[in-house]
Amino acid sequence: MTRSKLRGLLALNIALLGVLAIVSLSPEADAENTQPAARARGAYTMVAGGIRTGNSSAIWVVDSANQELAVLRFNDSKQQLEGIGFRDIAEDAKRRPGR
Question: How far apart are CA 68 and CA 9, in angstroms?
Fold first, then answer.
């Protein structure tokens, strides 16, 4: 390998190390800053059940720590889970239905 190629590779490696240092030391790269501070770590319960539309089943996922409910169904054609519903249980408990 010639000297000019070695110098080029050395300069590239130094530049990449500099970029890595900048990215890893920046405050946005901190994993703790990616979630809102008020959200607690989830405590999940998953239950299989039926839904009224179609003949497919659904997965009901309850996050009891954050009081949220999500309903998912498996799409056979795409081979992935799809969200079909979400409820904030805490907000639902605060509301009083009018009669």
Answer: 52
| Mean per-residue pLDDT of the chain | 83
Instruction: State if pTM tops 0.85.
Output: no
Domain boundaries, the chain: 1-34, 36-99
> 3-state DSSP call for residue 54?
coil
Are the C-beta atoms of residues 13 and 21 closer than 8 Å to each other? no
> In this structure, how many other beta carbons lie within 10 angstroms of the beta carbon of residue 1?
6
- Is the pLDDT at 11 greater than 60? The verdict is yes
Q: Where are the beta strands (DSSP E) in the chain?
A: 44-50, 57-63, 68-75, 80-88
